[in-house]
Amino acid sequence: MANGVEAIRGVGTAVSAQAARSNLELRYAKKGLMWALISGMGWGLGGVLIGMALGMAPFTTGATIYTGALVAGAMNDGLGGIYLFGYNVYTGRWREIFRTLKTWPGALVCIAAVFGGPIAMGGYLMGIELAGPAYAMGISALYPVVGALLAMIVLKEKISRRVWIGIACSVAGAIIMSYTPPSGDHPHFYLGLGLALLAALGWGVEGVLSTYGMEMVDPSVAINLRQATSSVVSMVAVLPLVGGFVMFGKALQTFSSLWILAAAALVGAISYWSWYRAFSMCGVARTMALNITYSIWGIVFTYFFTTTEITASLVVGAVIITLGSILVVSNPSEIIKLRNEEV
Amino acid sequence: MAIKLPMRFRILHHFCQVESASNQQLMDALRPEYGTEGQFNSAIFNEHLMSMRAGGLIEDKAVSFDPEGNLVQEFAVTEFGKSRMKYLPKSWKP
């Protein structure tokens, strides 16, 4: 009898502990959605800020039309790396950086950084410079599509009907957006869009590489390594090709554009950090779906901070690309269902 | 002497050696190796556990209350988590 009562009590505690866990996780998931949204807004704001800096001295006076964007990219990632190193020292994990470098997933973070950094970030910023932030962000938001197609080819993953619909949707959005160039002086508009597509390709490759053990690396360490590698590779391998060092030196002395770039790098670092935070709180699909809204935030911030005209085809294209990309990365019905069913 | 692993790698390694572990049990087990570092605190361990669970390396196991009424979550390694052991440096491979 006494044992029976004990057993019932035991069951009661187990059930209420599970209920407590489930409530805790729901709260956690909701907070995660907020971080995911912050990561998307941050990425949108960062892009617009970089676009503003690129329109100022010394970035407008490069040896080639690519110089300004590539120098800004190297500086952006370098500054981001410094901020994140500061954060890692503050949270007592700076030793982890060197430990991680000695492992294969750590080395992979660095390899992926070359695709995500000089190639993707370089393409993205050149796209921002030549086609304007709103358009470059829209096209670069195709990266999940590239990722899905690469996964099909390289990882032999099957693409479901939902993902094919998302891909078709995104491509249609990209065509709508790029069909009419914005009014004003954009002589290299289509080159800019092509470079933004290069960004989508670089990030797509980065996504595929990350399936080889990158989830084992502490995200704060991974982003730190990524930004540092990207910046170093840019400086060693890319800037000499476009006469970038002269501008680099000038940019460090031009306070008016330097502080905007420093702010953009901070917002960018916060965006990455929020991405990973959200990822662990509400799952990768929801995080990607909310993060990918950055091209819409890009239009919002473009409207408030710049004089670029916001056309209907830009807004419609960006919304369709975003919806398509959301379909590629996630199943909408699962995204809405926050509470874990198996309690 | 094996090299010192990044803490998350070490956490995964530990999960492969035990049935399940809670945040506290994990900290007790790793204290001799990482106890003096700034990152050795319950909040950072919790971050690792949540993010490893989201990444599918570990999964929920049991849940209960401790005598003080705090929720104690236990986690166990998944098959996917075990498969990631192949990325550990040679000296740490099982």
Description:
The complex is a heterodimer of chains A (343) and B (94). Chain A has one domain. Chain A is 80% helix and 0% strand. Chain A starts with a helix and ends in a 7-residue tail after the last helix. In chain A, helix 4 (104-131) crosses helix 5 (133-140) and helix 4 (104-131) packs antiparallel against helix 8 (189-209). The mean pLDDT of chain A is 86. Chain A contains 15 helices and no strands. By secondary structure, chain A is mainly α. Chain A has helices at residues 2-54, 67-90, 94-101, 104-131, 133-140, 143-154, 161-179, 189-209, 219-238, 244-253, 255-282, 284-291, 294-305, 312-329, 332-336. With 94 residues, chain B is an alpha+beta fold. Chain B has a single domain (7-33, 40-86), classed as Arc Repressor Mutant, subunit A, CATH 1.10.10.10. Helix content of chain B is 41%, strand content 18%. Chain B has four helices and three strands, in the order αβααββα. The longest helix of chain B has 13 residues, at 42-54. Chain B starts with 6 loop residues before the first helix and ends in an 11-residue tail after the last helix.
Helices and strands in order, then pairings?
The complex is a heterodimer of chains A (about 350) and B (about 90).
Chain A: H1 2-54, H2 67-90, H3 94-101, H4 104-131, H5 133-140, H6 143-154, H7 161-179, H8 189-209, H9 219-238, H10 244-253, H11 255-282, H12 284-291, H13 294-305, H14 312-329, H15 332-336
Chain B: H1 7-15, E1 21-22, H2 23-34, H3 42-54, E2 58-65, E3 71-77, H4 79-83
Antiparallel strand pairs in B: 1-3, 2-3
Short description:
Chain A is an all-alpha fold and about 350 residues long.
